[in-house]
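This section describes the prediction task in plain terms. A model, or a person checking by hand, is given the sequence of a single protein chain and must write out its three-dimensional structure as a string of tokens. No templates, partner chains or ligands are provided. The sample shown here is typical of the held-out split.
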Amino acid sequence: MVAILSGGPNTQVPVLSDADAVEVARELGAKFAAGAAERDRQRILPTSEVDQLSAAGLLALTVPADFGGAGLGAQTLAEVVRLVSVGDPNIAQIPLSHFVYINAVRHRGSTAQQEFFFGEVLAGKRFGNAQSEIKSKNVREHATTLRPAGRDWTLDGEKGYATGALFAHWIPVLAHLDEGGPLHVAWVERGAAGVTVADDWDGLGQRTTASGTVRLDAVHVPAEHVMPYHLTFEKPQTYGAFAQLLHAAIDAGIARAAVAEAAAFVTTKSRPYPDAGVDRAAEDPLVVQAFGQLELQVRAAEALLAEAGRAVDRADADLTAETAGAASLAVAAARAMTTSASVDAGSRLFEVSGTRSALASLNLDRHWRNARTHTLHDPAAWKVQHLGRYAIDGTLPPRHGQI
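The expected answer:
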């Protein structure tokens, strides 16, 4: 067992190896699973559990070694996120943007910004997100604006789906410089004047991610807390693939949890169907066949997830248009497969478990609700489109954050 150290916002967190990170995630995932159904039922936000992720060092895994971090790769992080998701996918989703914006600092931060923000992560601080806008025409349109205020800036806008913001110390905000200027990231402190985080998330699944609204009213932003975002996609990059990989990891975790809970139910609570002529539901050949199909689907999703992580790591080690495109395609395959695996496992859980599994008191439907809600983040059909275009004529996917 790996020792998990206690800590807080000003505590230097542990720096973990690949093996230790996976083991800590496995331990915490198992611990989180015990209360997942009740948290979902009562919509109890996992504040203590998120603090445990921080104190354990799991939220600092990708801080580069040159800045005192572990510098672990995408494959390890994807497995860490998957294992936490097996326990509770809500907890796994909360720090997703935290990791994405660590990556943004790595790619686009100045040396001074890297030293400061990486130092904040190593001290146990968390990043949220204020990116999407509910009222925009599409997910890539933003009305939020930074306006000049001397050498600094004033920030105004409203953001939705702000997962992680309620639990964050810093909220990275996507905003245009002045009217219609290029997109930048404005880093604002969670408690800064003019920042309001509303816990108004009302999803049918992923109910405790607190993916609510961030309102920004004349927020003062120092010049040193603004960094470019628009330049990210002008050259080959793994920024989008990295973010999408973590979404795939969450869905893979949901799928595995659904199969595991179905197996526990079938072996302890289900009654056999009389026509099967067996003493235990777990011996019914139709049930066994269905479990075999689910296991095959989930294993395929897990294998594609692991390969996608390796592809991102390979591209980061030798970044070209071809390696970046290969990483995006590998992640697209993982996202498409984890989408179907999680939704199917969450639904077929009831098929294999029988009538008793439908009792509301068991809350087994949370697996399907979590899968159906989270997999809507990006359409899986577009992942398949890009895979098809590549298979037909070798067309590499576009450079943006959704592939």
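For orientation: The first helix runs from residue 18 to 42.
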